[in-house]
Amino acid sequence: MEHEVEAILKSVPQWDLRNETHQIKRGDFVREESNKQPWGALALRVVAMMLSLGALLAVATPVQASAAQGHTVSRTVIPMGRAVGIKLFSDGVMVVGLADIETEKGTANPAKTCGLKEGDIITHLNQEEVDSIEEVQAILQETGGEAMSIRAKRGEEEVQMTVQAVQCSTDGSYKLGAWIRDSMAGIGTITFYDPTSGVFGALGHGISDMDTAKLMPLQSGSIMFAEVSDVQKGAVGAPGQLRGAFQVEQDLGELYANTSSGIFGTWTGVELETGMEPIPVAQRSEVRTGKATIRSNVAGTEIKEYEVEIVRLYPESSGEHRDLMLKVTDEALLKETGGIVQGMSGSPIIQNGKLVGAVTHVLVNDPTQGYGILAENMLKTAEES
Question: What one-character DSSP code corresponds to residue 203?
Fold first, then answer.
């Protein structure tokens, strides 16, 4: 089986946070964070969030479709291709790992003992709703070593358990022995914008936790103005990536859904589509193998169109939102990026004057090739979410 990676840029690696301040940097994006140990030896504060990358293999997560919210998207939209910063705050906190805590009586792991698992989304502690690491930390220290209730989501199920935190012999704080994450961020590409409804779609796949590969539950999020500063070219066995800076104070739109078909939201910021014309969205039956183009922003803020070839179409029943395979044939793009790189997720695919789909993955063993999702599937999810 060919290995593939979601073509979206992650922003920071995971590390254990100690009692000092780290400077977190990816490209030109810099942010300082005072480190804490909310859940103990194992506290994880992923500051600038991660848009699921690394060497993820075959990674689409099943759609967690919510009830329709009344979003109506036109079948004539503007194919964008613009790189943007993306930030997402989770609904609850995700357990991304478990590890032992040193106490005066030896090692203990209350989280593991009570039944918590990687990928669980903790929504309540002692009947109090939690959405951030700080809220979890505060309840733990307030409760001390007394028994407390945990309510969490595990897939489609809700689970409840009782746990007692232990006091760490190193710093005296109460801990459970779980790494948790409450936010993610990175750079990706807008696929389409509907000027009639204000709805946009991006990435063509969901934002997933890098450790568990689980789709991050969305509480709130936004897209931000970004500029690509340079490119790490892709090579066989080493996917490349876009590097850039995004302005956290300049939101362009608010997210309302994080799904395996992409992220979706409503435009609220300055116009970025000036000079771009809407085009029809192709139905599956209209898509053909052969020549096509993609729109991508691989330098500065400039969007260019590059030649590609759709080499394979997958049947509707194939699942995993892998609808087509494409190959980059444009010499200029191959020279600049080596093919498809992380950060290009969402680049719109255009064929015969219609929006066909979006780039979603790059093949690890051949960066000139990757997978895409059909645009009609993205629009359907945008309306149902």
Answer: S
